[in-house]
């Protein structure tokens, strides 16, 4: 048996045979360390562990170190180096490719060149589409386009779009200035220029910052729970106090160590904060519970309901029809006085309808009338509105059809104004206002006699809630019968000789 002292547990393995090989290995290890350091620097910047100023200095230092080390390795294939040593650092490689820190903006020269190329492409295509065929008018623009594309360093040498521009530049260069290109040649030129333009816009060089950021995110690791951090300043550490400094005058019992109330609460009354004990101006929002509210409905949503066949555009559209779709909800108990038709989607509205709402502005009115329709604004008191919102429940309860009251004093001016298409305005005044609005918005207001007759038949009386049903009528949904009152007292109650106004604010 050999002596244990002869056994060599640790043997030195030589990785080099000369000083030159040793220096090369040192440079390779230095290059590998710089790439790993760059990758970690990008990660800690994304997690907000370093300030932008410190990051810029460190990143610039590492990029300079990378360039110097790479020069000390002549003949090194960088791609083979990454594959051989299994370097998986996408953020560091992106930073090396851009040769600048993330916090430093890129060269604006490329952006201005890209903008110039796009403008020249569009100008040249427009001239060809406007039947400009003279060589002396097309050649200068084509020359500028070729020069700009050759100065853009992002484009590869074999870029097909640039080759097409060069080909057409050479063709026009061989022609005299007084010549004109034929229509067939111009058509082919437009086609190839559009192809070159689309190819140019799809290149990575002209992609937006959002697309470049998305590509960077796709190369990085997935978001994990342990990588999530709060934004700076999102959480503020509370002030740690000892019990002797947290008593606030209470030195006896459990309350001396209990949590103290938040800012604004006064000791002795834990149920009323200071802004309730001292309200200030008592009239501020004092009538908020009495204000009228209107449920907004956009023209875009109305067009969508019509396109989906939730609403029949050939019939009168009132609040009962809108609420029956279950897409529009109006609750009179919350002092919601009807529908406010807004102008969102006015440029896309195309349905010819006859609609009655409670509030609308001039843009909305113009959009409906431009499509050939009609709109009226009408007031409903809360009782009438409750019946109109859910007619089935109202009639099944055995209640008579209520009479609609006139608007209160504060709303009379709105509903008698023909510019608002108020239901109390005169028809001839509304017709004049329709023509005036058509002249302002520059469209033709044309209504055929057939539609006008149908709309007149669908016009409600000022005291009617439902079209064709007089106030005071009883409706049996099971028997499908309508019972109208005949007693003079009941008729006078539901149809008074002097209309009643709604005195609720």
Describe the structure.
This protein is mostly helical. The chain folds into three domains: 80 residues, de novo design (two linked rop proteins); 80 residues, Four Helix Bundle (Hemerythrin (Met), subunit A); 202 residues, Ribosomal Protein L15, Chain: K, domain 2, CATH 3.100.10.10. It has a three-stranded parallel sheet. It has a three-stranded parallel sheet with strand order 4-6-8. β1 and β2 form a beta hairpin. α1 packs antiparallel against α2 and α13 crosses α17. The model has no long low-confidence stretch (mean pLDDT 82).
Q: Which SSEs are present, and which pair or pack?
A:
Blueprint lengths: L18 H28 L5 H20 L6 H7 L5 H9 L9 H22 L5 H17 L8 H14 L9 H19 L7 H11 L45 E2 L2 E5 H4 L15 E6 H9 L8 E2 L1 H6 L11 E7 L11 E4 L1 E2 L1 H9 L3 E4 L4 H8 L1 H6 L15 H4 L11 H15 L7 H9 L16 E3 L4 E3 L4 H7 L11
Helix pairs in contact: 1-2, 1-4, 5-6, 5-8, 6-7, 7-8, 13-17
Q: What is the helix tally?
A: 19
CATH top level class name of the largest domain: Alpha Beta
N-end to C-end Cα span: 113 Å
Mean pLDDT over the full residue set: 82
Helical amount among residues, as a percent range? 40-55%
CATH architecture classification of the largest domain: Ribosomal Protein L15, Chain: K, domain 2
The structure class reads: mainly alpha
Oligomeric state:
single chain
Domain count, please report it.
3
Low-confidence runs: none
The CATH topology of the largest domain is given as Ribosomal Protein L15, Chain: K, domain 2
Overall number of strands: 10
Strand content: 5-15%
Largest sheet: 3 strands, parallel
**C-alpha Rg (nearest Å):** 40 Å
Tell the overall outline: flat
Q: What string gives the helices and strands in order?
A: HHHHHHHHHEEHEHEHEEEHEHHHHHEEH
| Biggest β-sheet: strands ordered side by side in the sheet | 3-5-7
